[in-house]
Structures are given as structure tokens and as C-alpha cells.
Design goal:
The structure holds two protein chains of two kinds. Chain A is mainly beta. Helices cover 12% and strands 35% of the residues of chain A. Classes of the chains: A mainly beta, B alpha+beta. Chains A and B meet through helix 6 of A and strand 3 and helix 3 of B.
Chain lengths: 460, 443
């Protein structure tokens, strides 16, 4: 059975599917993907049923090594990501697209460019043992997923048997026009209630007109918002009752909290509104600092939105893209060189390849020459700083000294950003380009190989 | 036995060590340069660590990175293979200081034997004849005095040299000044040490070396000799064991001298004492190679031993050769196939192997990291494959080698295969006992 080995877990990566429904009466929250649409579309790309388990990646990604051949796709918010083959060739991983990886390939997922969560879907699904018919991890309860916890270094994730051949899957992707946006400011549709009457009319009007900012202490249980306080008519408390996904509860502070996948099953705060099912993913993708506005809609409108979204998870949303990478072109070149063929032309989707054998005596006698036509627009490769030498990576000069740099810092080319220790000799690692640090990929105190990506930059 | 080692080498040597690790159940992590990430040994290793860019100075010769890598992956020992850092006393010391085991002799033994002048003195002390020569030559005047005493022609040698490099032939007194300056510059450039010494050039001598195996308890065993006289520019081309037409008393004397030398040097692990045997039946000690040799497979073929496994056993402190009884059987001959163009003065060539088809059959062994589609990187040595043939007697072994070389296919770049086929078929080699100048004379 193929497995994924965790080299670095990332800040919070867990196994999630669509959650375990119908157990609220026993106090078991559903858990599951924070952006279920992204998970379902990702599963569709790799030929899985919608409920197959995947890895939910939060803000910055893990480094994984494939043990066995498999097909993977990165769904949800766009993250910097690239694949390094055993041979060392490195290529950016395009989002929403099925990618075939070979035994030993290393998948490095960097920081989120927008949004908060991505899903690494694998053909066959992450095959951890189900718990109450679900593989979703409830982090607070320590239930489901991989031992009920987030991934750790050296975890091995079993991959299930794919439903179809891997050859047929590679190159499938979600149609470009259907990729959801992950804006830093979004409008979320709600149905008012169940306790809208527990708030002053002014409070309801404020809730539907003000902008609320997502707070850093948000998590999979609830997304905490900050904005103009909402006043209750008769206090925040009521008799505890069951809580629905997307309930917007307002405790005494007057600051709303949207209750999410790992929510408590019952609660006694008044709820001003409930986020509609179609927009739960928008809240799930809101990173700290993102700004949300709320718009009231009718139940009918909510159902229509839900139906429209369900319709997206369909084979008609899938297109095929170029599956020809450098390895395929290299293999063709070898075959061409060994054959007696003088010239050949190949067009596969956006790739056009012309191979021609030069006449003997010309430069590179008898060597095939290749001319490659217009490629598809390359996905913007992250600017990565790689290790100039092998050694132990240190983010600061000493244990009690702050790191040279943090994610979000802007650095100049030539600035010292880390140290690498080779047998007690410290080497300064300097930024080769200036820019803002978007992710730090290497772990403090761990071995980095020569040329291993250490951190990624966005141009200022 | 170790549970995990780091292999600090590449190509055919790395693959050779890897295969033994597999047989012993030892986990092997391979240190690779950026250019070797996709090599056959990298694909077969249990783990791969990229230690630096393609240039060997920053990767395979980068002792601190190799040691750091071994520590970080949890290896208990480092096998240096042959070439690169295999005979670096500084590296051996660094590995040991880091709490790891260096698979090879101690740093002290390497230092003692690596200095060619010091090892000559050691040989003389145990009664092994050395080629008449000088001590360290401080300047040209000292060289001239030494040459006058020895009689021309003489050889100028770099004290830190090895593998046939750093050697210059001086025909007469008129050529001495120029050759001395050139040899010193070459020694500084190649080995970082311009120290020179001088030896008398022997006429019609054969290169015969003795493989020894020494455990930490002090037992030293001679595993037989190898005749490596077929050399081109002092690079071995064909090697065989036993040495043809070598009389039993001479063989015994060589084996005994090699063992005494190893004991005197406090030598532990496998090593090779190299001798010249001249036309008058006199032998002279040249140098001790403190490592596994490229041509070790011929010894393995007739003794049935796995020398890499023995190296690991010795390093792990598990070897005891006090009761080792050798029963060598038959004859073995090895041919080195290199990426050199025999039609263009043996210029090393790089390129992509478009077709590779190794030979087979009774008694044939091929040690090679080649695959169809493999691109020879330009930064390393040109050895592509070793074809080893065993037979119950010499004519059978040589005939099998000729057959194997005939059916071997390496397409995509020039190799020495055509030359080897011709040499193995030549009357002089078929007869056996060629001297070290045979190939230079044009066979």
C-alpha cells in the first residue's frame, strides 16, 4: 500500500473528510473539512467519492514524501507548492489539478497565498481507520483521523486503493472559471435567527452593515470576529440548545463567533444568525485579519445557493490539462534519438514539440534538436531561498535570541536570515533576493540538505 | 554489526558497498552531490542525503558535510569507498572525533602510510626491500645528488601522491631542473603538498600487489596477490589474480612482506601493499594503499570472500581472522571500461548512454552503475564498468573475459571497450606476465 511520509508537519495539518453527522445527541461534534466544497472538488479531481479523507492544511504546509506511486491534487486556497523528484528536478504544483507523483518524490507545500486552508487530496483517500463512519479528526476530543491529532514528523499516512487507474487521473483539473476566489474581504450570506429577536433592532442592522475582522484566536471550533459590539435585549444567555454549523453566537462581549466544524454540540448564548451552507467555506477560508460582512437572505435563496454549489461537484466541472512534464519530454527525446526518424512534430494540448535530426557535419552531428512551442502560462513559481550547503538549520544565533526573520518580514538581498551549522562551524545564510518572507519551510535545529528550500519570498 | 551506515562515495563504488549492505541487512544512506541525485545507487539506497553541488570539492570531498549528514541521519559509521576521502587521515579523524566509526584503517595508520617517504622507511624497517631512492628532496641540488647516486633514469614522485598521479620520469641530468620544477608545481596543484622524493626507474618490472586483511585483534592475513601490470599512464587497465608465472618462493616472500608491513604499521581493515617485481626476480615495496582497491573483485572471485562485508565486520569489531583458512580457487581477470576515447588520445568523454547491455554467463561479474539513459557527469572519474571473469584456470578466465567484452554494449559515447577486446586477445596478454611498460610501448 502506498503511504505518505511526513517530513515536516506544518503548523496544523490534519486528516479530514466531510465529518460525522447525526451524533450531536451523543455529544460528538461532526468535525470535517472547514471548506467542504474545496474538499469535494479536490476529491472529484482525483476520482474519489466526495467524502474521501484528505489532509487539511492550515496557513502553511507540510513536506511530504510519497512512498509509492500516487495521484494527488491540491484544492482550496492557493498555496505555494512544489514537487521535487528523486532526481532533484523541481516544479511548481498547480492548484486544482491531479498530479502523478512517484515513489520518493517530495512534495513541499509552502505558505498560503490567499485564504487559510488547502486540501491535499489523494486518489484512494487517506485510509486511516474510520471512527463512527468518518475519518475526520476532532482535535479537541482527540477523535478520528490519525490518532485524533494533527500530523507530526515521521507520521506515515496510508493511502487507499484508487477507484480508477492513475494514468487516467493525471492531468484532470477543475475548470479554470470555477476556481473559487479567496478574497481578504468577503460577504457571507446568513439567515437571521434563531434568536435574532434577542438583539436590539440596531444590533441586527449593525451586524448586517458593519465589517468584522477575523481574530487570530480563531480555530476549527469557531471563527472569532471583532467589530462594532452587538447589544442584547435581555442578556446573552439562554437555555442551552443544540448548535448548527454556521451559528453566529454573540456572548456578553457583543463580539460574534461563527461556530464551525469542531464546534461544541450545545451552547447557551444567543445566536443572531446562521451562515448558509453554501458560504460556510468562505468563513472557513478567512484567515486572521480577513474582513467579513454579512448579508441576510431567505431560506429559499439559501437552498438555491446550496443547490447551485452541489451542481458544481460534477464531472462537467473537470477539464483535462497537459500531462506532459519535463520527464515525458526527456523520455521522448531519448526514444527519438534512438530511432531512425528524421523529424517529428507533436502537439498535446498547449505543448508543441518539434524534433529534428540535424544533418551530419552540422553542429552536434546527428544530435536531435528540439524546439518547444508555446507552453501553458506557467504557474508563478515561488521564489525560494535554498540551502547553500548541508548542515543543521538555525533560525537564530542562540536559543534565547529572537530569530533573524519571521514570516511577514521584509528582507533585503544579502541580509542574514538564518545560520547553518556544519560540524560546529556556523555559516550565515543570506537572502539572495529581497522581498517579504511568505513561509519558513525548514525547521529550527533540523538537518537541511544542499539545495533544500528554506523559505519563500514574495516580491515587495 | 552496524544497523545504519552512510556511504560517502558515488557511482560503481557506492553501488558495490550498497549491495553488501543489503546482503548484511545494514541500512545504507547514500551521500550524493547535486549531480548524482538520480543515479542508480541513489535510487537503490535506503536513503539519500544531498551533501553539496556537483563539484567534488564541495560534495564528496566535503568532510564536515559528510560527517554532519551521517550524524543527522543516525548512521553509526561512514564507508568512504575508494578515491575521494578514502585515504584522508584528516577525514578519518573527523569521523572518529564525531563519535562515528570510519570504515577503514585508523587515521594514524593512514597518515603513516599515506606519506610515501615515511612508508618507505617503515618498509625498510621490517626488511621489505624498497626501490632504491631518496628521502625528501628539499631542493633541486638535493635531487641532483640523489639522481647521481641512483643512476638515471629516475622517477620524481609526490610524497602525497597516489593513483599513479604526480610522477615524472627524468631521463638524464639535463632534464632534471625542468622536471623538478614541473613535478613540484604539479604536486602542489594536485595534492596541495609540493614534497617530492625520488626512485630509481626499474626496467621491465611487473606491478604485483598483495591484498591483506587485518582485524583489530592483530591478525593479518594475505588474501593473495594481484598482477596489475597492464597500465596506461600508470592507470590500471587489466588486473588478475593470481599473478601469472610467479614462482612460489617469490609469492610467499611478497605475502610475508605485506603482512609484516601491516603489522608494523598497526594496520587494521583491508589494505594493499604494492610491489614491483623486476626481470631479475627481485621485488621492491612501492606503497601501501590504505583502502579497498578498485580491482578488489578479482580477489573476491577466487577467495569467495566479500571484502566490503569484511571491512564492515572489522570496523564493527566483529572480525577474528585467527582461524581464517583460505582455499583460493581458480583464476580471475578484471577489465576496466572507462569513458575515454581511444581514438583521441584517451580524452575523457561525457555523454548519455543510449544503450547499455551488460554481458553474462558462467563466471562473469559486472560491477557498474550504468543504465540506459544515464548521463555521465563531467565532474568525476571516467570508470564506467568493471567486467570480471572467473575460470578454473587462466586460459578459461581470459577466454570468458574476451567473450564478455565482446557481447557488452555501451552506446552513446566512446569507451575503451574496443581497446580492451583487442588487448585481451593479444598474444602477450594471453601468454601472461606483461610488464608495466607493455601498454605504453603499444602492446
Amino acid at each position: 500500500m502506498a503511504t505518505l511520509r511526513v517530513v515536516r508537519p506544518g503548523p496544523l495539518t490534519s486528516v479530514q473528510d466531510l465529518g460525522r453527522d447525526g451524533l450531536g445527541d451523543q455529544g460528538i461534534a461532526p468535525a470535517g473539512a472547514m471548506d467542504s466544497l474545496a474538499l469535494r472538488l479536490g476529491n472529484l479531481v482525483v476520482g474519489n467519492p466526495p467524502n474521501a479523507a484528505a489532509l487539511e492544511i492550515t496557513l502553511a504546509g507540510p513536506i511530504l514524501v510519497a512512498e509509492g506511486t500516487m495521484v494527488v491534487a491540491l484544492a482550496g486556497a492557493p498555496f505555494e507548492a512544489w514537487l521535487q523528484t528523486v532526481g532533484g528536478a523541481r516544479s511548481a504544483v498547480a492548484p486544482w489539478q491531479a498530479l502523478r507523483v512517484q515513489d520518493g518524490d517530495r512534495l513541499t507545500i509552502g505558505g498560503a497565498q490567499q485564504g487559510a486552508r488547502a486540501y491535499l487530496c489523494v486518489a484512494g483517500g487517506i485510509d486511516v481507520p474510520p471512527h463512527h463512519d468518518s475519518r475526520a479528526t476532532h482535535l479537541g476530543a482527540g477523535l478520528g483521523g490519525l490518532a485524533g491529532r494533527a500530523l507530526r514528523e515521521n507520521d506515515r499516512l496510508p493511502v487507499g486503493t484508487p477507484r480508477q487507474g492513475l494514468e487516467a487521473l493525471a492531468g484532470r483539473r477543475v475548470r479554470r472559471d470555477l476556481w473559487p476566489p479567496y478574497p481578504a474581504e468577503a460577504t457571507v450570506r446568513v439567515i437571521l435567527g434563531p434568536q435574532a429577536e434577542g438583539f436590539t433592532p440596531d444590533a441586527v442592522a449593525t451586524f448586517l452593515s458593519a465589517t468584522y475582522t477575523v481574530q487570530p484566536d480563531s480555530n476549527r471550533m469557531g471563527v472569532r470576529l471583532s467589530g462594532p459590539p452587538l447589544s442584547h435585549v435581555d442578556g446573552a444567555d439562554l437555555t442551552s440548545e443544540g448548535i448548527a454549523l454556521g451559528a453566529v453566537q454573540v456572548p456578553h462581549s457583543g463580539q460574534p463567533i461563527v461556530l464551525m466544524a469542531d464546534r461544541q454540540t450545545t451552547g447557551g448564548y444567543t445566536k443572531i444568525a446562521t451562515v448558509i451552507g453554501a458560504d460556510i467555506g468562505v468563513v472557513g477560508q478567512a484567515r486572521p485579519g480577513a474582513r467579513l460582512r454579512f448579508e441576510a437572505v431567505t431560506v429559499e435563496a439559501a437552498l438555491a445557493a446550496r443547490r447551485a454549489q452541489e451542481a458544481l461537484v460534477d464531472e462537467t466541472s473537470i477539464e483535462r490539462t497537459l500531462t506532459w512534464g519535463p520527464a515525458e519530454v526527456a523520455a521522448l527525446l531519448h526514444a527519438f534519438a534512438a530511432s531512425g526518424v528524421g523529424e517529428m512534430e507533436l502537439e498535446v494540448e498547449a505543448l508543441r514539440l518539434v524534433l529534428r535530426r540535424e544533418a551530419r557535419g552540422a553542429a552536434g552531428a546527428g544530435e536531435p534538436v528540439a524546439a518547444v512551442g508555446e507552453n501553458p502560462p506557467p504557474t508563478e513559481a515561488p521564489q525560494a531561498l535554498t540551502a547553500p550547503l548541508l548542515g543543521i538549520f538555525y533560525r537564530s544565533g542562540a536559543a534565547d535570541v529572537p530569530p533573524f526573520v519571521e514570516v511577514g518580514d521584509s528582507v533585503e538581498a544579502g541580509q542574514v536570515v538564518a545560520l547553518i551549522d556544519v560540524m560546529k562551524t556556523l555559516h550565515e545564510v543570506r537572502a539572495t533576493i529581497g522581498g517579504r518572507i511568505t513561509a519558513i519551510l525548514a525547521e529550527n535545529g533540523a538537518l537541511v540538505e544542499y539545495d533544500q528550500p528554506l523559505m519563500t519570498f514574495a516580491n515587495p | 554489526m552496524f544497523s545504519h551506515i552512510l556511504i560517502a562515495n558515488r557511482g560503481e563504488a557506492a553501488l558495490r558497498i550498497l549491495r553488501t549492505c543489503r546482503a548484511l541487512g545494514v541500512r545504507a544512506t547514500l551521500a550524493v552531490s547535486d549531480a548524482d541525485r538520480d543515479s542508480l545507487p541513489a535510487r537503490l539506497a535506503d536513503g539519500v542525503v544531498c551533501i553539496g553541488p556537483a563539484a567534488p570539492g564541495l560534495s564528496y570531498l566535503n568532510g564536515p558535510a559528510l560527517t554532519q549528514a551521517a550524524l543527522a541521519v543516525g548512521a553509526q559509521a561512514i564507508h568512504p569507498g575508494y578515491g575521494f576521502l578514502a585515504e584522508s587521515a584528516a577525514f578519518a579523524r573527523q569521523v572518529t572525533d564525531a563519535g562515528l566509526v570510519f570504515v577503514g584503517p585508523s587515521a594514524d595508520a593512514i597518515a603513516r602510510l599515506g606519506d610515501k617517504a615515511a612508508s618507505r622507511a617503515l618498509a625498510a624497517s621490517v626488511g621489505a626491500p624498497v626501490i632504491p631512492g631518496s628521502g625528501i628532496l628539499t631542493d633541486e641540488a638535493a635531487a641532483r645528488r640523489a639522481a647521481d647516486g641512483l643512476g638515471y633514469p629516475v622517477l620524481l614522485k609526490a610524497a602525497a601522491g597516489g593513483g599513479g598521479r604526480g610522477i615524472r620520469r627524468v631521463e638524464d641530468g639535463a632534464a632534471l631542473a625542468g622536471q623538478f620544477a614541473a613535478a613540484r608545481a604539479e604536486a602542489v596543484g594536485a595534492f596541495g603538498d609540493g614534497t617530492l622524493y625520488m626512485e630509481k626507474l626499474l626496467g621491465h618490472a611487473r606491478h604485483v600487489e598483495v591484498q591483506i586483511l587485518a582485524d583489530a585483534r592483530g591478525y593479518v592475513v594475505a588474501l593473495g596477490e594481484r598482477d596489475c601490470s597492464a597500465q596506461r599512464r600508470r592507470q590500471k587497465v587489466l588486473e588478475e589474480t593470481p599473478a601469472p608465472h610467479l614462482l612460489a618462493p617469490m609469492r610467499d616472500a611478497l605475502h610475508a612482506a605485506a603482512c609484516r608491513l601491516a603489522q608494523a604499521a598497526g594496520y587494521v581493515n583491508v589494505g594493499t601493499a604494492e610491489f614491483l617485481v623486476d626481470a631479475d626476480g627481485q621485488f621492491y615495496f612501492m606503497e601501501m594503499n590504505a583502502r579497498l582497491q578498485v580491482e578488489h573483485p578479482v580477489t573476491e572471485m577466487v577467495t569467495g570472500l566479500d571484502l566490503v562485508a569484511e571491512q564492515l565486520r572489522v570496523a564493527a569489531g566483529e572480525a577474528n581472522y585467527g582461524s581464517l583458512r583460505l582455499a583460493p580457487l581458480g583464476w580471475a581477470v578484471e577489465a576496466r571500461v572507462t569513458a575515454e576515447d581511444p581514438d583521441h588520445d584517451f580524452l575523457p568523454r561525457v555523454g548519455t548512454v543510449t544503450r547499455y547491455q551488460p554481458p553474462g554467463g558462467p563466471g562473469i561479474r559486472v560491477d557498474s552503475h550504468l543504465t540506459t539513459g544515464y548521463t555521465i557527469p563531467p565532474w568525476y572519474d571516467s570508470l564506467l564498468a568493471k567486467v570480471i571473469a572467473w575460470g578454473p584456470d587462466r586460459p578459461t578466465a581470459v577466454a570468458r573475459l574476451a567473450g564478455a567484452l565482446g557481447e557488452m554494449v555501451i552506446e552513446g559515447l566512446p569507451t575503451t571497450l574496443p581497446l580492451l577486446r583487442w588487448l585481451v586477445d593479444s598474444p602477450a596478454f594471453r601468454h601472461g606476465g606483461v610488464d608495466t611498460a607493455w601498454l605504453q610501448r603499444g602492446a
